[in-house]
Structures are given as structure tokens and as C-alpha cells.
Write a structure and sequence with these properties.
- There is one protein chain.
- With about 170 residues, this protein is mainly beta.
Length: about 170
């Protein structure tokens, strides 16, 4: 059984494509193209289910056409419309340095070398030119931290921890 903490969201199926079972995936992370993983995960009525990729191709920089094994008609593909698509974190960890998307880090604990425990990284805000980590403090308050490699001191994938070295005054 796949648990929610073992995957992270990389996009959403928006519609079917053609009559052969292809689906349009609007993605935020193309990790499926950079890492050798044979499947993607979809939430099917509250259960995370792996579906094996038969083939895929890119339609644009944000959309890929995905064909799963044993999904051979547009009717079968229609059950995936508006379903969120997830990627296994265990495979994502195999990505080369610098190839992980910021979305991968959602759920990681955040600490700073000076301020200690910052809280949990709960979201990534990519609505502006500067990507921001949204960190929920233990008291429920949210803080924003720039998602920049220069502020990241260390990443422990096993402990799911990001250690920051933030400039003085950034958290005030």
C-alpha cells in the first residue's frame, strides 16, 4: 500500500486525448522524464494506486500525453480526468543534484543553523518570480522562506529535513 508521505504531487490529468487511452497531464514537475520510474500514482477514491506507463510524449513545456498499460480507450482514460498525479519520493531521490523540484520538499521539517526548528514545509509558492517555501511554525503561524540553493545548508532525505542558513533579519 502506498502511503501519502511516500509520494508528492507532480500534476493533474486534465482531459483525455484521442481514442487510444492517452491522457493530458498538466505537470509542475517533469521528474518522470528525468528518473527511471515505471509508474505514476493516482488517487483513486482515496487510495493511492500505481499505474504503469506504457509511453508518454511532451505536448508543451507544461503538458505531457501519458498512456498507461491496460488503459486502451477514451472511456477508460476518462476516469482519470481531474485526478491528481503523484510521483514516488524513493525514485525522485535518484535524481541528479539540482534535478529535484521544489514540490518534492513538501512535508520536510525545516531548521535553521541560527534559529533552530522553523516548522514543517507545507507548500511551495511559485506565483511570483521568486519561489518561496511556505513553512508552518509550531504555533500555527506561516513564514515564507526564499527557495534558493544558497540558503540551503544541507538536506537529509532519510530524516526528511532541510537545514537552512538564512541571512540575519530574514525571519523578522
Amino acid at each position: 500500500m502506498i502511503r501519502p508521505e511516500e509520494v508528492y504531487c507532480i500534476g493533474k490529468f486534465t482531459r483525455t486525448h484521442g481514442v487510444q487511452g492517452e491522457m493530458a497531464l498538466s505537470f509542475t514537475d517533469d521528474v518522470f522524464d528525468r528518473v527511471d520510474c515505471p509508474y505514476l500514482v493516482c488517487d483513486m477514491d482515496g487510495i493511492l494506486v500505481p499505474f504503469f506507463i506504457e509511453e508518454y510524449r511532451f505536448k508543451s513545456n507544461e503538458v505531457a500525453l501519458i498512456k498507461f498499460e491496460r488503459i486502451d480507450t477514451s472511456e477508460q482514460a476518462a476516469m482519470f480526468t481531474n485526478k491528481m498525479v503523484y510521483f514516488p519520493k524513493s525514485y525522485a531521490e535518484q535524481a541528479e543534484e539540482g534535478e529535484l523540484s521544489w514540490q518534492y520538499f513538501i512535508g520536510f521539517a525545516a531548521q535553521d543553523t541560527t534559529h533552530g526548528d522553523l516548522g514543517e514545509l507545507v507548500d511551495v509558492d511559485e506565483s511570483t518570480i521568486n519561489t518561496l517555501f511556505v513553512i508552518e511554525r509550531p504555533n500555527g503561524e506561516e513564514i515564507l522562506v526564499p527557495a534558493q540553493e544558497e540558503f540551503i545548508e544541507d538536506i537529509d532525505h532519510d530524516k526528511r529535513l532541510i537545514m537552512f542558513n538564512l541571512p540575519e533579519g530574514l525571519l523578522e
